[in-house]
Amino acid sequence: MADITRRLGWRHLRGAPTAHVRHHRGTRLLHDGPGLSFWFRALTAAISEVPVDDRELAMTFHARTSDFQDVAVQATVTYRISDPAVAAARLDFSIDPDSGAWRAAPLEQLGTLLTETAQQHALDVLSRTPLSAALVDGVTAVRERIAQGLASEPRLPATGIEVVAVRVVALRPEPEVERALRTPAREQIQQEADRATYERRAVAVERERAIAENELASQIELARREEQLVDQRGTNTRREAEEHAAADAVRAGAEAARTVRLADAEAARTVRLAEAEATRSVRLAKAEAEGAREVGEARAQAQAAWLRVHGDVDVATLNALTGTRLAENLPRIDSVTISPDVLTGLLTRLGTRE
Fold it and tell me: Angle at CA 87, nearest 5°, toward 116 and 83?
């Protein structure tokens, strides 16, 4: 849409680079070209704005195949207006001098023309094609047929339109038919998936079996090595016991020999001590016997002398000596009480002795 501003009864138009503007005043063409900018009077100006950029036209229409199945065709046609003068003469591209908007809908007319032309050629090719072939190769066939039909359509060049490209996005049957057609493929895909799952499970089972066999072989090898280790340990233990027994036997022999030597030495020393003790005992016995004999003889001589001495002493003296000896053997006497009778008798005896 053109950009139009107002100034004191005049209008100023500023066009876009992709818009071809044609300005007429009466029968004279004053301005003609893309991206123009000029002043004009609204009452005397007739202005057309024709877009010259590439346009995308999306279209969707239904068709019927040779086996009477409905299909939906989605396509896109890229076009542009190659001759703005012809297009402006054939279609109403005039704009309002105050707002710059189109007075009519020229692009809708172009869309209707392109859609109907493309649909006619698509129906022509699909009506002779069964549904299965249309779903497999129908997109390419429809695209080529639409491109050829639009290129050979005389109304398009006469309107100043050039078709740039044609694309067919999709060609689909009705939902029920599509589901029915998908079922075998889905079944096949499911079978392939199941087969792949079974194969994967079989491979997994085989791998698990191989792993189990490897583990079992490893356990067997480990048990065999443990048995060898136990045998080796038994051999080592037996050899160590034999070596210990031999060492103990050597130590026992050495200890027995040392004990025998010690016992012999102890016995010899004991014999020597016994002989010395016996000799000393004999000597002591002889000395004691000799001393006892001498002591006895001395005692006998002393007793004989004592008897000889006491034999010459009278009885009163002996009694006195007996009392003295008795007094020596009695316990300590702190005081003695003498009666008058005893004192009188003693004094009498002492007086008589004198």
Answer: 110
- The edge-to-edge listing of strands for the beta sheet with 10-14 is 3-7, 10-14, 37-40
Q: Per mean pLDDT, which range of 144-148, 171-175, 267-271 is the poorest?
A: 267-271
Neighbouring C-beta atoms of residue 38, cutoff 10 Å: 15
Distances from the Cα of 146 to the Cαs of 76, 85, 152, 157, in angstroms? Answer: 11, 26, 10, 16
The dihedrals phi and psi of 45, each to the nearest 5 degrees, come to -100, 140
Read off the pTM: 0.50
Given this model, what pLDDT does residue 114 score? Answer: 92
Structure token digits, residue 284: 């002591």
Per DSSP bridges, beta strands 19-25 and 28-34 are antiparallel
The rounded distance, in Å, linking the Cα atoms of 205 and 185 is: 29
Helix (H, G, I), strand (E, B) or coil at 86: helix
Residue 180: CA count within 13 A, CB half-sphere = 8
Check residue 327 and give its pLDDT.
Answer: 64
pLDDT in tens, 184-225: 777 888 888 888 888 888 888 888 888 988 888 888 988 888
Nearest one of 184, 6, 276 to 284, comparing CA atoms: 276
Query: Which tens digits make up the pLDDT trace of 268-324?
Result: 888 788 788 878 877 887 877 787 787 777 777 777 776 676 666 666 666 666 666
Q: Is the dihedral of CA 233, 235, 238, 242 positive or negative?
A: negative
Q: What are the residues facing 282 on neighbouring strands? A: none
User: 83: part of which helix (H) or strand (E)?
Assistant: none
Q: How many helices (H) and strands (E) does the chain have?
A: 7, 9
- Give me the amino acid identity at 209: R
